[in-house]
Write a structure and sequence with these properties.
Strands 1, 2, 6, 7, 10, 12, 13, 14, 15, 16 and 17 form an eleven-stranded mixed sheet that branches. Strands 3, 4, 5, 8 and 9 form a five-stranded mixed sheet that branches. The chain contains four helices and 17 strands. About 10% of the residues lie in helices and about 20% in strands. By secondary structure, it is an alpha+beta fold. Strand 15 (about 290-295) and strand 16 form a beta hairpin.
Length: about 375
């Protein structure tokens, strides 16, 4: 862990002047709110961050969820994670293309009653997954994960490294477009609800054929820190022209964005998170959709919780250009305005996570065991990253 500056962290309370006195968030569960305070997912955007337009415009397309699978129950049985050859081939079923000859990808804990297939969204969902290992302390990340019926085979295709949510930086993982974390940045159950707050950075995905930039002369073509890579087909697929909008870009709302002017509370909860923490671009939606990563676990699905608490579906297939008087359309219209206003935090970098300046939101509190929290000074010139 790098040492922070000696000056006390100064943050912007919601509804207060930027630069308000120090306030850290409450003690947190490392499985619900993972990674130390200086992880990219936990550092708020700086009030002096240098930004450039994201260029997404009022995109007029669909907005929806990309479900990350998080299976973190230490009491769940240990099972073999099998291999599926289907990957993202829409002509093959992932649960009908299981290979056992090469042995399991890993040993992981999967609750007996948990299943993703049938019931998943879309034809070939990403299903980046963080799965608890037998040790009960670390997870392995994989993609695209499926559980083929309750008690059935657990399968995936690609395996990434082992992650400890208490000590690791949370950057690398199984979102295949960027090589970034499945566990970090996912909207969790209990966060996107009436009166809720999302006190961490999010993960966002866009149609890279229109918006993502690939410059073959760049030393990291198609991606920027903290992304580990770009899509394998980035050179042929990425069609954007804004040099800042690459995989790994940190997108945020400007601090003067009119959150109170949004029509729906669901959009306001999202907007506050995007203003204070931002969202990292981690994958390509491969179509006319902007998506955010949400939890699907044995505890439930954010898409179901969202519908139950807000009264309309997050996976509504209408576009942000809808014109009816429903609550769903009001939300989608709000989201269209949010996406249009996003900027890229261009000075987000190692040693200056979230850009320069005092933080826009409280510093991350410690884990319930007292570790992982911000020290007395978390930086007025930017928070150091590892």
């Amino acid at each position: 862990m790098l040492l922070a500056t000696a000056t006390a962290c100064r943050v912007a309370e919601v509804g207060s002047e930027v630069g308000a006195p120090l306030r850290t968030s409450p003690a947190r569960d490392p499985w619900q709110h993972p990674f130390p305070w200086d992880s990219i997912w936990n550092v708020p955007v700086g009030t002096l961050a240098r930004t450039v337009p994201a260029g997404l415009g009022r995109f007029g397309d669909r907005f929806g969820p990309d479900e990350d699978i998080l299976l973190l129950d230490p009491h769940a049985p240990v099972v073999e994670l099998g291999r599926t050859a289907a990957e993202w081939d829409a002509t093959r079923t992932r649960c009908g293309s299981i290979t056992i000859a090469d042995g399991p990808l890993a040993l992981v804990r999967v609750p007996t009653g948990f299943s993703t297939d049938p019931g998943y969204l879309g034809r070939t969902p990403n299903h980046a997954a963080a799965l608890l290992r037998p040790d009960g302390r670390t997870v392995v990340e994989t993609q695209p994960f499926h559980r083929c019926g309750p008690g059935g085979p657990a399968v995936s295709a690609y395996l990434w490294g082992i992650v400890d949510p208490r000590t690791d930086d949370g950057i690398a993982g199984s979102h295949g477009g960027s090589g970034m974390s499945a566990l970090g940045g996912t909207i969790r159950l209990g966060e996107w609800v009436p009166g809720g707050r999302i006190d961490h950075a999010l993960k966002i995905e866009v149609d890279c054929a229109r918006w993502c930039t690939y410059d073959p002369d760049d030393t990291t073509p198609g991606y920027r820190w903290p992304a580990q890579k770009a899509d394998a087909a980035a050179a042929d697929r990425y069609g954007g022209t804004g040099p800042a909008l690459e995989m790994g870009a940190l997108l945020a709302l400007p601090p003067d964005f009119d959150v109170d002017g949004l029509r729906t509370e669901a959009a306001r909860v999202l907007a506050v998170a995007l203003r204070d923490f931002g969202a990292y671009l981690v994958d390509d939606t491969a179509g006319p959709t902007v998506a955010v990563a949400v939890e699907w676990s044995d505890r439930g699905r954010v898409v179901d919780e969202f519908a139950a608490t807000w009264g309309f579906r997050l996976d509504d297939q209408r576009t942000t250009g809808c014109v009816d008087d429903s609550a769903s359309c009001a939300f989608l219209t709000d989201v269209g305005g949010i996406v249009a206003a996003l900027v890229v935090v261009d000075d987000n970098a190692p040693g200056r996570v979230g850009g320069a300046g005092p933080r826009r939101a409280p510093c991350a509190g410690p884990f319930v065991d007292g570790t992982g929290g911000a020290p007395l000074g978390c930086g007025t010139a930017g928070v150091a990253a590892r």
